[in-house]
Design goal:
The chain has two domains: 306 residues, Peroxisomal Thiolase, Chain A, domain 1 (3-Layer(aba) Sandwich), CATH 3.40.47.10; 74 residues, Beta Barrel (OB fold (Dihydrolipoamide Acetyltransferase, E2P)), CATH 2.40.50.840. The chain is 30% helix and 22% strand. The protein has 15 helices and 16 strands. Strand 2, helix 2 and strand 3 form a beta-alpha-beta unit.
Length: 505
Amino acid sequence: MSHSASLTSDRIPVIVGVGEFSDHPTEITAGLEPIDLMVKALRQAEQDSGGKLLAEVQSLDIINFLSWRYHDPAALLCARLGIAPAHAYYGPVGGESPIRYIHEAAKRIARGECSVAAICGGEAQSTATKAERAGVSLPWTPFAHDAPVPLRGASFQKPMATTLGVAKPVTVYPIYEAASSAHWGQTPREALAESGHLWSVYSSVASQNPNAWLKRAVPAEEIVTPTPDNRLIAWPYTKLMVANPSVNQSAAILVTSLAKAREAGIAETKLIYVWGGASAEEPRDYLERDQFHQSHAQNAVLGSVMEMVEGDGTAFDAIELYSCFPTVPKMARRTLKLGPDVQPTVTGGLTFFGAPLNAYMAHAACAMVRKLRSGSKLGLLYGQGGFVTKHHGLILSPQPPRTALAQDTSVQAEADRNRQPAPPFVTEASGPGKVESFTVIYGRGGAAEHGVVMLRTTDDARALARIPASDTQTLALLTNLDHTPVGGLGTISTATDGILEWRPT
């Protein structure tokens, strides 16, 4: 291993500045649009660095935002800043994307392609929703109705998943929740207690973060108990266990070469080094996966970052585990060999800090940089996108790395090697069906709309079946806190509308 002294300083990437902004307008029309929010975050990041860098940005990555639509967000932002970077990119949907962009910018610097890079994201969903509800038109850049609508996870799912309402994050993650907790030998009650404890830790960190949307430490019991204000959304998740996208927040990260940072007069105490990381994906259609108690892509990514630090998760003294829903950090901390007392966040999580859709991990990167500047030695950022689909891990440290930043960072081959063939998916079946996983979907009033069970048939095909709201007995079985239905047997039948249904035997 070569020592950093032999690495040339113009090829060593460092994070030099971070900026965040939360917009809480008193009047709806005073709310800032996403582009303005990003300009604010970028200026904050420049200010934070102590150098004059924005004018020299050669690489700009903009995180996909969903609260407003523009024809060419990258051109618009560059015009606002008066810059013309060679690389100006507006990316696709994905919660892991901020980590990926920081990593890619660092790789560009390591290749000598640029010396100043910026990554930013901004959402104004809170203002946009309020304006729509109040019928108020916003004085923003006109909404680009004819701009392409970005593809989201739902675009890749089978029609039956859409029909039964299990083609969006809030209803798919519970399928992992039920399958993983059953696999770990937990009762649903134990799994819920773990989620509640973990989420209360996220909330207590958010309560201390000046940029958080909700600054209240919430007790575990309150998080997991359904009430009119904390309604069940998809079993077992209540409102306080899911991401909160109704925020106005922006974040920006500035990355330069070490040589450039020194030339710009940036204090050494500001510099956070990018050591390396890894990425991998699951099949985009979740019904094409082999099982739901773990993610091979997540395991490969977290396995790779543990190898880089020659240990397990305990090597990191600052961690951010993505937290759209509890199952994600619960799986991740087990892979990292960390116990239930894990400190999973430096930011506060997507429920409490806020979930500016794809940009949360940009805020996590800002919080991590501050943490590493104030005494922590080794940080792990782990982000995820889609439905447990896209995974990216990144290691940061105030200490220089011992080796040059690797260019080949995909661990897809490792993820694929561990993947078993997925069972064929069928929409027609009868006879015995064994529960692989399940959820129950609730309406705004708190009543169950229907249950969905994922089944294996006698010839080991996979099917989705409905439990109608009228079948209160089966719904009670699915939501029994002392006994998981996973692995339970029943009979598959076809309803008059052609959709499969299931009853326990």
